[in-house]
């Protein structure tokens, strides 16, 4: 893992090579990671209803690792996706576009977690594209199988 500050708990760290090309790497730490299919035997025949992903830039690799589970169980996915910031950040934008394609190809709907001025939850908003932005309060998403949207009927959409 590359750390972009001297603080080992800084959330700007990432497992993705060149994730912050403009930033100096202050230190590196070996972090063992596994593809989900390597660990799936632990679940046996149990189904998964919710998946939480917060991996500081490696979301695409995690989602690809989970594709078989996503297709089989259709879990709700709660995910943090860091902003692309600008159109010049083509690497992040391409990764984000690929995630959007994977979700669309598997009939998922993207809901952005909306927050009020004090950063508290205020609702979910259905979006077609994550887009290019730099707002760190708009990095949390709930990705829902489109067939389950009706179940969420009592949630306020903004």
In a few lines, what is going on in this structure?
By secondary structure, the chain is α+β, with helices and mostly antiparallel strands. It has helices at 36-39, 59-65, 67-73, 90-105; strands at 2-3, 27-28, 50-53, 76-80, 108-115, 121-127, 140-145. The termini are far apart.
Quaternary: single chain
Global outline: globular
H/E topology pattern:
EEHEHHEHEEE
Count of domains: 2
How many strands?
A: 7
Helix content: 10-25%
CATH class term of the largest domain: Alpha Beta
The strands making up the biggest β-sheet line up spatially as: 3-4-7-5-6
User: Which structural class fits the helix and strand makeup?
Assistant: alpha+beta
End-to-end gap: 37 Å
Q: What gyration radius follows from the Cα positions, in whole Å?
A: 17 Å
CATH topology assignment of the largest domain: Methyltransferase, Cobalt-precorrin-4 Transmethylase, Domain 2
Largest sheet, strands/sense/barrel: 5 strands, mixed
**Range of strand content:** 15-25%
CATH architecture of the largest domain: 2-Layer Sandwich
Give the averaged pLDDT, no decimals. Answer: 85
Number of discrete helical segments: 4
Low-confidence parts? none
What would you note in describing this structure?
The protein is built from four helices and seven strands; from the N terminus they run E-E-H-E-H-H-E-H-E-E-E. The protein has 158 residues and is of the alpha+beta class. The strands form two sheets. It has a five-stranded mixed beta sheet, with helices on one face. A hairpin with a 5-residue loop joins strand 5 and strand 6 (121-127). Helix 2 (59-65) runs parallel beside helix 4. It is globular, with a radius of gyration of 17 Å.
